Amino acid sequence: MKYAKIYILFLGLMAISCGGDSSDSPPPAPGTVTLVFPDQNSECTTGTVISDSQSEVTFEWQSASNTEGYILIVTNLNTNTRQTLPTQATSGTLAIDRGTPFSWIVTATNSQSSDVSTSESWLFYNEGSQTTYAPFPAQLVEPLSGSTVIRTDTGQVRLIWQGADVENDIASYDIQLSTTNPPTYNVGTQSNLVSDLFVDVDADTVYYWRVITTDAEGNSSTSSVFEFKAL
Question: Angle 43-100-138 (CA atoms, 0-180°, nearest 5)?
């Protein structure tokens, strides 16, 4: 009988310890936002023209789970200026420059969670008066700006970027690298099928790099400048 009571008490303690308190569980993080419109690598032609230089564009995305609100972030790729719009809806309208390339993302937030979910970044051209478009400025991937990179055994670093174009007619990439900002020394030219390049660098040196994208009609665009330190 004595052992039976001890056994029952043991089971009771196990139930309490295993049951836990649901209030101690962290709140669920916001779900992933899926972008809808403007389409990736597209020309946006549905904006409402409000002046010779600007039109209003409505951005749309799908609702995300565990989300109380969204922040729409639209970046002018020519000037790197950003516009933000907090909203609880799954769409938002902004006045943006015409005939200009943009990137846009949406973040999802929940006041009960410190986590923030960020969508993919999509590129588009806002329609203007031109009939042909320059390529989107290349998106630099690696090395990240401000990072430190270990050279290969042969003293090189790999530069990686992503290119895109509304008309899908990219012809080449010119890669510029130097120890001064902005870089002006062309270290290589790649075809539209190649988006990386190994370059020779010195140890304990800070470098700046960018990519100039040219299409079949001779239109070109210049990426932002990234910096890295080679070791």
Answer: 85
Tell me the pLDDT tens digit for each residue of 7-48: 444 445 444 444 444 456 777 889 999 999 999 999 998 899
Task: Assign 3-class secondary structure to 163-229.
Answer: CCCCCCCEEEEEEEEECCCCCCCEEEEEECCCCEEEEECCCCEEEEEEEEEEECCCCEEECCCEEEE
How far, in Å, CA of 168 to CA of 161, rounded? 16
Query: What's the gap between Cα 230 and its chain centre?
Result: 24
Give the per-residue SS3 of 95-125: EEECCEEEEEEEEEECCCCCCCEECCCEEEE
CA dist 65 to 55, 69, 144, 206, 210, Å? 31, 11, 31, 43, 38
pLDDT digits (tens, 9 = 90+) for 94-114: 999 999 999 999 999 998 888
**Token digits for 60?**
């749309």
Rg of the chain in Å (alpha carbons): 25
Q: Which amino acid is at 186?
A: N
Q: Percent of the chain, pLDDT > 90?
A: 79
Cα–Cα dist 34/132, whole Å: 29
- How do residues 86-95 score in pLDDT, each as one tens digit? 999 999 999 9
Per the listing, tokens 């902005």 go with 182
* Cα 31 from Cα 192, distance rounded (Å): 35
Threshold 0.70, pTM exceeds: yes
